[in-house]
Amino acid sequence: MIVTTTGSVDGRQIASYLGIVGGEAVMGSNFVRDFFASVRDTLGGRSGSYQKELRKARALAIADMKEEAEDMGADAVIGIALDVEVIGDSMLMVTVSGTAVKFA
To answer: Is pLDDT at 18 greater than 50 in this prediction?
Structure first.
């Protein structure tokens, strides 16, 4: 399934718009990883553990959205938007949404 942030897919004509689809992933973090991330933030540098969690959450949210689109019979999801939020002190939420479409 094609998933894109653009409003169209080159070389493909959209026959119908099936509706908005979305996916969510909420990931918890743990105390040890939080502690080492705060040490890294103090000393400078990137937090590899948080980057891994963010990538994992993004992949899960996109997979969730694609599954919803497939259930609708879509060929692609266009115009996707990603959003990342922090919930409380230890939860990371990634949401993604887009428009499911069927090609001609």
So the answer is: yes
On the CB side of 85, how many CA atoms lie within 13 Å of its CA? 9
Predicted TM-score of the model (pTM): 0.80
What residues contact residue 37 under an 8 Å CB cut-off, 6+ apart? Answer: 47, 49, 50
Residues 6+ positions from 84 with CB-CB distance below 8 Å: 54, 57, 92, 93, 94
Q: Are 59 and 24 in contact (CB under 8 A)?
A: no
Query: Which pLDDT does position 33 carry in this prediction?
Result: 55
Q: Tokens at residue 47, please?
A: 């937090």
Q: What is the pLDDT of residues 25-65, one digit of tens each?
A: 998 765 445 555 555 555 556 666 677 888 899 999 999 99
76-87/2-3 β-pairing: parallel
Question: How many residues in total does the chain contain?
Answer: 104
